[in-house]
Amino acid sequence: MPYCGSESISVSKSFCLHIGSRTSKIIIQKTIPNSIKELLALLDHDPLIPVIAVCDKNTEQLARKILPDKDKTVHVLPAGEEHKEWPQVETILRAAKERGLGRDGLFIGIGGGVVCDITAFAASIYMRGAKLALIPTTLLCMIDAALGGKTGIGLDGIKNLAGTFYPAGTIIIVSEVLDDLPQREWKPGIAELIKTAIIDKDPSFFNELQALTNTKEILPFMEKALLVKGRIVEKDPYETLGLESERALLNLGHSFGHALESTLGPGTISHGEAVAWGIARANELGLELGITPLSRCEAITKLLKAWGFETSRDHYRKLFGGKNQAGIKFKEALLKDKKKKAGRLMFVIPASEGAVMIEENSKVTQFLDSLIAAL
User: Fold this and answer.
1) CB 193 within 8 A of CB 138
2) CA 52/CA 33 separation, integer angstroms
3) Three-state DSSP state, 93
4) What is the predicted pLDDT for the residue at 322?
């Protein structure tokens, strides 16, 4: 994975990932571009060719700080996951048309995962593919959601039912925007950071992360996470290798975590809290199967707790409102998980180094039964 030399303004570091037929340039810097001129210089985009910046109500102020609004450069979406659907895509496409964008026009997504996802999807289908740049504004989006090329929108109530693979030409990571990030918004990103460190075959990432105590020192770890995910995605850019792919390991904690989210209901806990709880369950399962060494299990649990994540299997029972149907709902949600082989569930489990994918067997079923009973 070659580093790309950069002569651009204020760049602290940049490197390139080759995802299928496209190249994504990742730029990491401390400060926000203070003008459209500086931004377009970073993006190597001709200022005479139209651009459209897509943001939501949460990131509108940042977008307007960088881009002029006199010529409808900034297109503002309503905030929230529930708006990541076709009607908002259509508003972006119409705004791009009114702005006069051609295939050489540039879509710029400025926001969290929802904004970056919907902007990338719109760019991928506008005139069969326009230029795309992303400026993620949450830790989760910086180290995970913006990278990899997967776009998607909800359809008929099903999350990401429609989507494309369309890696951004440039992703600008600006650590300065994290200064005002609410504490609750840190957790999804920290959970994904821990997940990425666990699945990395090089133990130094996880070992160094254990010493991180201050989010002000997080920038080097963000770069490590991007490089780890980048290497994995480069090997299987379009997810054609299925569960045999190393890319499947990126789902560590997500099978259990998604089932917990479905059981509790939308918005009850953050995605990061659910994933962290799911990592703890995968950790627990790995220990019972003899895959995860005790010392490794204890180190992962300690790290999760150090960042304030709940790891006990029955911690969220109180949020079920005293209903005794939680176990049934959890099992139903788990059975809907996409990671299956010949009808059997597959789980990502921490190993002595990195992680492995395992197939449901009698011991796994026994573990699941005990987990469901605890809910």
Assistant:
1) no
2) 16
3) helix
4) 56
User: Letter for the amino acid at 64?
Assistant: R
- The distance of Cα 124 from the centroid of its chain, to the nearest Å, equals 19
Mean per-residue pLDDT over the chain, rounded = 90
Run of H or E including 96: helix 86-99
The domains of the chain, with CATH numbers, are: 13-181 (3.40.50.1970), 192-374 (1.20.1090.10)
Q: Determine the residue type at 154.
A: G
**Cα–Cα distance for residue pair 28/6, rounded to 1 Å:** 11
Q: How many residues does this entry show for the chain?
A: 375
Parallel, antiparallel, or unpaired for β 22-29 and 13-19? antiparallel
Q: And the tokens for 151?
A: 């776009």
The one-letter amino acid code at 186 reads W
Q: What is the pLDDT of residue 8?
A: 39
Contact by Cβ (8 Å): 96, 106? no
CA 88 remoteness from chain centre: 21
Neighbours of 86 (CB within 10 A): 13
Look up residue 290 and give its two tokens. Answer: 């003899």
- Please give, one letter per residue, the 3-state secondary structure of 58-71: CCHHHHHHHCCCCC
Low-confidence ranges of the chain (pLDDT < 50): 1-10
Residue 66 tokens, joined: 């960088």
134: which strand partners?
109, 171
- Contacts for 195 with CB less than 8 Å, ≥ 6 apart: 250, 252, 253, 275, 279
Radius of gyration of the chain (CA): 21
* CA–CA dist 375, 370 (Å, integer): 9
DSSP class of residue 158 equals E
CA distances from 185 to 43, 61, 111, 175 (A): 27, 18, 13, 14
- Name the DSSP letter for residue 253: T
Q: How far apart are CA 257 and CA 94, in angstroms?
A: 37
